[in-house]
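lol ok so funny story. i was supposed to be doing the assay writeup but got distracted and ended up predicting the structure for this chain instead. priorities right. anyway since i did it might as well share w the group, maybe its usefull for someone
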Amino acid sequence: MLNVFLSWYDGQNNSAANAFFELLKKQGFVVNHSPFSPHSGLHDKRWVNWYAHGLSEAIEQAEIFIAVITPACNGSTWMLEEFETAYSKFSKTAKPALYFIRFDSVEQPVHYPEHYLATSNRLSSNPEEAVQTLIHSSS
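and the output, tada:
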C-alpha cells in the first residue's frame, strides 16, 4: 500500500486525527508523521535531525502528504515547513499527492500560503470517508 506522511501538531491528542491515523494503518497504508511535540511530554528522538535530514527523507518516501488541521495546529511553524517541503517537491515532480483534512469544528484561517491549500485535495473530516477517498484515488 502507499506511503503516507501526516503533518500534524500534536495530532495524537485529537480523537478524530487519531481515528484517521489508525484507519490508515488498518487499511495497509504505511504511515509516517511529524515528530511528537516537545510540549506533549513525549521525547521524540527524530527532532535531533528533523530539519537537516528527517523531514526531507520523510517527504521523499511519501506518495501522499496530508496536512492534518486541528485546533492545536494553528500557527505551527513546523507544519508550515513540512507543507513547504512537500509542496516544493510536488511542484518539481508531481509527488507526493497533496491533501489536507480538517478536524477543527469551526474552520479557523490557517497560516499556510493560499496556493498550498488550493493545490491540495480536501478530504472529508469523517475519518472513514477520508480513508476511502485515499483508497479509491490510489487504485
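The chain has a mean pLDDT of 87. The helical segments are 15-26, 50-61, 77-93, 114-119, 127-138.
back to the writeup now i swear
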